[in-house]
């Protein structure tokens, strides 16, 4: 191969460096071509950033001069403002009618444009700021971390519409006709779904029967009839809730003292809430179909109240059943024979807590996804960054802490319903383990409401955890000269005659301590349960004090014998010597 003449003019030692620089220049030009070519294609309408078609709506004739369909934002503005002034001849050019014949396009175009405008106005809020104003639809207002940042698009989803049978997407597409410039139009699939969307979101027969003056726009996207109807719907829903509450209250009076009375009492508030949201839902779906801002606010709120009402009904029924079990099967909670019943009730309480946690999680997920909150960009950013979880946990940290502590107590069974415990020097019975508080009944029938997290984190004595029997000590402080054998005889007589003393062979009398004033004598016996043990404990103390007093009084005058401790007095003479 013959080299160019200019090559011979380059010194041989510099020919290698020249080749390297020349190759670098070609590589830079090629890289710039790869980066800039797609944007150039998109701006000019070629390449993969538009759908190639033979023609756009040949049955409609030329596009009006004031119609701008070059960008997504221009398309929505043209269609929206044309519909606001009833210029349906211009609005129909914003639809891709390619699924219709040219004759049908001319016949049905204006009607389809009118119906789509009504659907958009009544069922969605247009995110004007989020619409790109570039022909290639590149998103300029998002960060570089967004998955679509810097990418040209030819198909955009504006909204997800939920129909009874399925979910459809409201989309716009970019078409590149063979004989013209690319344009943005509502996609063929969206136009094909307009009749179904209008049937679902269009005006009801009730609205069409209203005078034209009431159908005019008042403010935002609300018509005057909506401004009037919204408080009426709330009042009717409140009346339905009040009627349901009164009905359940009458049912309570008629079934007083029965199982139905307990169930009716538990269900009256949840049923009233369900009646409120149910009436509200029926009126919205059949008579008053609200639009725009009101719809976007009411939909998630309505779903939230419905989930809360259903969960409250189920939880109230479960709570009523648990209370009936506790009252009927654990009437005397400190009875040792009811140990299995205490286990059963505590296990059912655990089931209730599991259901509550599951209801919270499922309900929150249902509200988020059914109301479309998960489809918004803000929600996606919060969820991806983990901020949503942090916000929810921080806001509900106290409630979550109590729920988890309650489940910890129930599953570990460190304390069961009916257990006798010593809580901060008070002898109590566990009466109820709730979601926020543990209800304790003291021995003198007072109720202590202890926060669950405090109860779970503070040491306490459980007297019936494994064995309800209990050792009961009685301590007396007696004179050092007391005859312990004589007291032991009185103690053994008490043990043999008292029916609440069990394991009589274990009963004992011990001198467990002394001081300069007295010695400490302990009388130890075992009772079958804490309740019987307390009564027996008091009787034992009384019997031993009587025995000690009898021994003390039986001593001969002047004898060096005593049982009950006495204060010693020292009398000093004038010269300081004791006398």
Automatic annotation (TrEMBL):
<feature type="transmembrane region" description="Helical">
    <location>
        <begin position="303"/>
        <end position="325"/>
    </location>
</feature>
<keyword id="KW-0812">Transmembrane</keyword>
<feature type="domain" description="Mechanosensitive ion channel MscS">
    <location>
        <begin position="400"/>
        <end position="465"/>
    </location>
</feature>
<dbReference type="Pfam" id="PF00924">
    <property type="entry name" value="MS_channel_2nd"/>
</dbReference>
<dbReference type="InterPro" id="IPR010920">
    <property type="entry name" value="LSM_dom_sf"/>
</dbReference>
<protein>
    <recommendedName>
        <fullName>Mechanosensitive ion channel MscS domain-containing protein</fullName>
    </recommendedName>
</protein>
<feature type="transmembrane region" description="Helical">
    <location>
        <begin position="379"/>
        <end position="400"/>
    </location>
</feature>
<feature type="transmembrane region" description="Helical">
    <location>
        <begin position="354"/>
        <end position="373"/>
    </location>
</feature>
<dbReference type="GO" id="GO:0008381">
    <property type="term" value="F:mechanosensitive monoatomic ion channel activity"/>
</dbReference>
<dbReference type="GO" id="GO:0016020">
    <property type="term" value="C:membrane"/>
</dbReference>
<dbReference type="InterPro" id="IPR006685">
    <property type="entry name" value="MscS_channel_2nd"/>
</dbReference>
<dbReference type="InterPro" id="IPR023408">
    <property type="entry name" value="MscS_beta-dom_sf"/>
</dbReference>
<feature type="transmembrane region" description="Helical">
    <location>
        <begin position="222"/>
        <end position="248"/>
    </location>
</feature>
<feature type="transmembrane region" description="Helical">
    <location>
        <begin position="269"/>
        <end position="291"/>
    </location>
</feature>
<keyword id="KW-1133">Transmembrane helix</keyword>
<keyword id="KW-0472">Membrane</keyword>
